[in-house]
Amino acid sequence: MNKITVVGAGHVGETCAQRLAEKELAREIVLIDIVEGIPQGKGLDQWESAPVEGFDSRITGTNDYEAAAGSGIFIVTAGIARKPGMSRDDLLKTNAGIVESVSKEIARVAPDSIIIMVSNPLDVMSHVAMKVTGFPRERIIGMAGVLDTARYRSFIALELDVSVEDIQALVLGGHGDTMVPLVSTTNVSGIPLTHFLDDDRIAALVERTRKGGAEIVGHLKTGSAYYAPSAAAVQMAEAIAKNKRRILPCAAYLEGEFGHKGIFLGVPCKLGEGGLQEIIEVDLTEAEANELANSADAVRDIMETLAG
Questions:
Q1: How many domains does the chain have?
Q2: Residues 60, 128: one domain?
Q3: b/e for 201-217, b at 16 or more Cβ within 10 A?
């Protein structure tokens, strides 16, 4: 791929740009921000790490969307970050305005691009981007499930003292307190999680996963997570750029899948060339289906708040 652009040069965006460059996922990585000097300085600093890290992806920092013209992928991280006591939904109105502006620019300079939405609340921000750009659902995907699943897997690894590589899991639903870790499909090298842990311990891990972002915000006091979110967004970009056809949990626009339509919701997605190639409908337990419906309702409530 010739060019990938990251919108927003805050902690998530700058870390995305560095990871993209180190993986050499495109010949050019563009870092855009509205604040003069910030993307230029960070981009130059990152490029100066290239001789040490051994990558040749050129990093360009800019305030001008013209530099992003022709990008194949945009990772959108622009917006205000959570602070202690704030929910993702508190960010709604401000970030919706930011994402609307960003989406107009993306559609103007790169009408055939794919958008990976990271800005919160990302299920609804993905919808805003889709409405503004007019892009098909295949080319707008929200980064939520990969991050939430990574947190779930990391907590299980700590609990069991095993490698994270051996843990297979999925977290579906909205990116918030109503997310749905699928305990029924969680396993360690094919061995069900229920073999290792009782219901109470599993419930505690599920709850920690749902509060994973808030736990980090509570520690940092003046910021929110960015190492894991950037890793998750870049994993999605890599799947698309390299046409890896990976099955990853992402926020996709549903048209009847899992019994829901008209909203972005975290579901298993095949990502590759062109973006979203397929939504995989897995069997859910009755409890999981009910939880997913509750999560979908929560997303609809936020959409109605924004519309109102």
A1: 2
A2: yes
A3: ebeebbebbbebbbebb
Structure tokens at 105: 């620019």
- Residue 133 sits in the same domain as residue 158: no
Give yes or no for a contact between 115 and 133, defined as CB atoms under 8 angstroms apart: yes
The active-site residue out of 127, 175, 195, 260 is 175
* Domain harbouring 221, CATH code: 3.90.110.10
Residue 195 tokens read as 């073999």
Same domain membership, residue 133 and residue 42: yes
Q: Is residue 175 flagged as an active site residue?
A: yes
Burial zone of 287 (CB within 10 Å; 0-12 exposed, 13-18 middle, 19+ buried): exposed
Residue 221 confidence (pLDDT): 86
Are residues 232 and 270 located together in one domain of the fold?
yes
Q: What angle do CA 201, 157, 122 make, to 5 degrees?
A: 85
Are 210 and 110 found together in one domain? Answer: no
CA 145 – CA 291 distance, rounded (Å): 15
In whole angstroms, what is the distance from residue 296 CA to residue 240 CA?
26
CA distance linking residue 179 with residue 206, whole number of Å = 9
Q: Kindly report whether the global pTM for this prediction surpasses the value 0.85.
A: yes
User: Residue 298 belongs to what domain range?
Assistant: 145-307
Residue 184, both tokens: 């029924």
CATH number of the domain enclosing 43: 3.40.50.720
Give the contacts of 39 (CB within 8 A, at least 6 positions apart): 9, 31, 32, 33, 61, 62, 63
Give the model confidence (pLDDT) of 284-299 as tens digits.
999 999 999 999 999 9
- Any bridge partners for residue 187, and if so which? 168, 192
Closest CA relative to residue 137, chosen from 30, 235, 257: 257
Q: How far apart are CA 103 and CA 81, in angstroms?
A: 19
Higher pLDDT, 142 or 222: 142
Per-residue model confidence as pLDDT tens digits over 154-175: 999 999 999 999 999 999 999 8
Q: What value does the mean pLDDT of the chain take?
A: 95
